Amino acid sequence: MKITKDLYQGSLALLTDFYQLTMAYAYWKSGKSEQEAVFNLFFRKHPFQSGFTIAAGLEYVVDFCNNFTFNEDDLSYLGNMKNSDGSPVFVPDFLDYLKEMKFSCDIDAVEEGTVVFPHTPLIRVKGPLIQCQLLETALLNIINFQTLIATKAARVVLAAKGDSVLEFGLRRAQGIDGALAASRASYIGGCSATSNVMAGKLFGIPVSGTHAHSWIMSFDTELEAFKAYADAFPEKCIFLVDTYDTVNGIRNAIEVGKILRENGKEMLGVRIDSGDLAYFSNIAREMLDEAGFPDAKVVASNDLDEHIITSLKIQEASISVWGVGTKLVTAYDQPALGAVYKLAAIKNKEGVWEPKVKVSQQSIKINIPGEHQISRFLRNGRAVADMIFLQEDVDNKSSVMIIDPIDSTKRKRLNLGDLEEYKLLKPIFKAGQQVYVCPPIEAIKQNTKDNLQCFDKTHKRLTNPHVYPVGLEENLYQLRTDLVFKMKNYDQE
Ligand SMILES: Nc1ncnc2c1ncn2[C@@H]1O[C@H](COP(=O)(O)OP(=O)(O)OP(=O)(O)O)[C@@H](O)[C@H]1O
Ligand SMILES: O=P(O)(O)OC[C@H]1O[C@H](OP(=O)(O)OP(=O)(O)O)[C@H](O)[C@@H]1O
Ligand SMILES: O=C(O)c1cccnc1
Ligand SMILES: [Mg+2]
């Protein structure tokens, strides 16, 4: 196996759980493949005890759907799968069906960079049951990870309060694709650049960086190392000052900064990667200012996350650029988002849509039935609530009641006349044809910024944030309750 050449072999159709294929076969065998269905992809709890989540990954989903075909290699692999009695798992007629299958679903989704909340669909898939089912695992894989990392990045960037955050995670990320996807999602979440050069090339993200301790250690003295770096990159000098003695390192950086200046160049700054970052950054700032380098930046790195950055801000550390790696790209404190993909409605034999619920002991796990939409209501540009609803329930209404999906005592009346309404689900595919143009990554990053700006700072607080109201329109709430009662059959002894 050569990972550079052979890994995906031009097809991602088998990037799925085996049970999706066994269900697909069983749907086909029982004549249900083409029955129309609606599935929603949503999460139940914000990651990191955050008050918000940033949607990311849609562009990957679009690409996946546009290339959703089983190639000859995939089909021959499936054709060779055997049951324990030696019989083939999948009969040739089914493999022919897969070969001819053309992606034909409608997909509606929340745009990347949108602030999203529990229970509201990030992606809605409507189409033949077999296709909806076969998309589940890949869609979850893509959206769960990129949404998680975009959210983590947004939190780190909020903690940095306007300072640049550089993403340095490649060496610690979860494998090759994890690293690439994390760099993309980190940029969407608000990072200014990545150290990951391949992500720069693939996604058009700015790349940047400093140098490592090994560079210093390869010379007899730190001063020699700084001079040689300045010689190679006079425009890009951020000297790593903590290899031996941080204060001495700053002194050496200043000395080389003066030589650069004599040659018409400016040192960009210093990086501190160990020790007490508040203490050393303040010393660096004082020494740089005193030596006539007030514009030189102090970059800090070393196991940073949003909490350490917040603490360093409180300590009045003089850091203006933050290099964040491991804890960002691995989502160290919560390594998975936990979004799910649930059947919400199915068209019966009479052609009538039937809403569906999965009943659970835990009310948080009861999904929201039907092909619903989400509206975000804003007052003077400020988000006040999100409503999950069925269009027919709100037509011609001047006010609506929304009810918390978990706690029905939490309700909010919205007077629609006073509010701006913004529909979150946008058409992405219609009958398998892409109708949405994926925006450039800069526009997605800007969308994150604009979206976050609409939310009160109490929802963006990193610890114990104020909960933003998201509710089911009352008729949809009632429909869900009635369906649960019906499926539970409480009237029976
Ligand atoms: N003033 C500070 N307040 C809070 N946390 C800090 C402060 N200074 C550094 N930190 C954090 O404390 C941790 C220090 O970790 P660690 O003990 O591994 O580093 P170190 O010993 O300074 O560096 P290294 O092991 O790389 O030489 C890091 O997560 C760092 O970001
Ligand atoms: O700390 P992170 O947020 O992951 O950021 C990336 C780290 O990677 C580099 O060193 P590395 O960790 O490889 O070595 P070090 O711990 O000895 O500095 C760099 O100096 C940072 O410390
Ligand atoms: O460019 C840097 O300073 C860098 C890159 C990767 C990891 N740590 C630091
Ligand atoms: Mg380290």
UniProtKB/TrEMBL annotation:
Protein modification: Transiently phosphorylated on a His residue during the reaction cycle. Phosphorylation strongly increases the affinity for substrates and increases the rate of nicotinate D-ribonucleotide production. Dephosphorylation regenerates the low-affinity form of the enzyme, leading to product release.
Question: Which EC class does it fall in?
Answer: ligase
Q: Nicotinate phosphoribosyltransferase C-terminal domain location, by residue?
A: 372-480
Q: Which CDD domains does the record cross-reference, listed alphabetically?
A: NAPRTase_A
Output the InterPro entries linked to this UniProt entry: Aldolase_TIM, N/Namide_PRibTrfase, NAPRTase_C, NAPRTase_N, Nic_PRibTrfase-Fam, Nic_PRibTrfase_pncB, Nicotinate_pribotase-like_C
Please state which protein family the record places this protein in.
Belongs to the NAPRTase family.
Q: What is this protein called?
A: Nicotinate phosphoribosyltransferase
